[in-house]
Design a protein that fits this description.
33% of the residues lie in helices and 29% in strands. A hairpin with a 2-residue loop joins strand 2 (35-43) and strand 3. By secondary structure, it is of the alpha+beta class. Strands 2-3-1-4 form a 4-stranded antiparallel β-sheet. The protein has a single domain (3-84), classed as 2-Layer Sandwich (Alpha-Beta Plaits), CATH 3.30.70.100.
């Protein structure tokens, strides 16, 4: 079942976000299996993330690559808000 995740972060600047993307691409995880949508939201100089994943397991598999990268950048994400996707509307 698809899940939506909203992850807030402190200190995750647009520059650190860009570097995280660069490192994910270098690790072959720029477009990970199971992620169907990624949205980066900037609020007060911090990047928060909203993703939709095919399953919680797919997100957790991606975390094995993502979390060390965030740690290297000094980012400690808060526990994500996770909810089952009820519906999506495009456009």
């Amino acid at each position: 079942m698809a899940v939506g995740l909203y992850i807030t972060n402190h200190g995750f600047t647009p520059e650190k976000y860009a570097e995280a993307l660069r490192r994910l691409e270098a690790a072959g995880a720029g477009a990970p299996d199971g992620r169907t949508l990624h949205v980066a939201l900037e609020t007060n100089g911090n990047i928060d993330v909203f993703d939709i994943w095919e399953s919680q397991a797919a997100f957790e598999a991606f975390g094995a690559t993502l979390m060390p990268i965030l740690a290297e950048l000094g980012i400690e994400p808060h526990e994500p808000m996770v909810a089952q996707v009820h519906n999506t509307i495009e456009g």
